[in-house]
Specification:
The chain has a domain at about 50-105. About 65% of the residues lie in helices and about 0% in strands. The protein has helices spanning about 10-20, 35-65, 75-95, 100-110. The radius of gyration is 17 Å and the shape is globular. The N and C termini lie far apart (about 45 Å).
Length: about 110
């Protein structure tokens, strides 16, 4: 089987690709049929937050194991980092924050 994954060359392409892969629609989330546009956004942001918390839990699991003398799981840690990045980019699209704005905002918050 040939890998059909795209080669993403910039952050905005990544945001757009992720948004196309993870669509908040009635087929995936039937409750959306009953919600206003504002409620749909709230649902989508909340659902994205739940996915983010899942990845934070995996990072915490790795760290907690290391605290107790274990070896942790570096593969899980790396995967959680990548999935968290995906979650953040999905959330940025939901909140209409494009790549340019994300990148330009970094210096404002790195102090």
């Amino acid at each position: 089987m040939v890998d059909q994954s795209p080669t993403l060359s910039n952050l905005q392409e990544a945001i757009d690709y992720i948004a196309a892969q993870f669509v908040f629609d009635e087929a995936s989330y039937p409750i959306l049929q009953k919600l206003t546009s504002e409620e749909r956004l709230q649902f989508s942001v909340n659902h994205s937050l739940q996915h983010m918390m899942k990845q934070i839990g995996k990072i915490a699991t790795h760290l907690e194991d290391k605290d107790h003398g274990g070896v942790g799981n570096n593969d899980m840690l790396k995967q959680a980092l990548i999935k968290e990045f995906i979650n953040i980019l999905r959330l940025s699209e939901l909140l209409n924050v494009n790549a340019k704005e994300l990148l330009e905002s970094i210096p404002k918050f790195v102090k």
